[in-house]
Amino acid sequence: METKVAIIGIIVENPDSVEKMNRILHDYGKYIIGRMGLPYREKNISIISIAIDAPQDVISALSGKLGNLPGLSTKAVYSKVNFKKEDE
Q: What average pLDDT does range 44-63 have in this prediction?
């Protein structure tokens, strides 16, 4: 199986969607390398970055599910290199 390393950037403008976002991230937890969140209190938003190592379709599905939540904007940036990963 080939994987890519990617960053998913998330802007949270609606705090009511955070619980659903966290559930979705939990569901994809085996692929997530790390997560960093920054509250931007002056603008009343949060900025989150997710580092992930997964097949491209998994990364796209995660980004799409997050982007469909109200008040969340997402964008995925992919590495140009494919990595070989042993099937689990």
A: 96
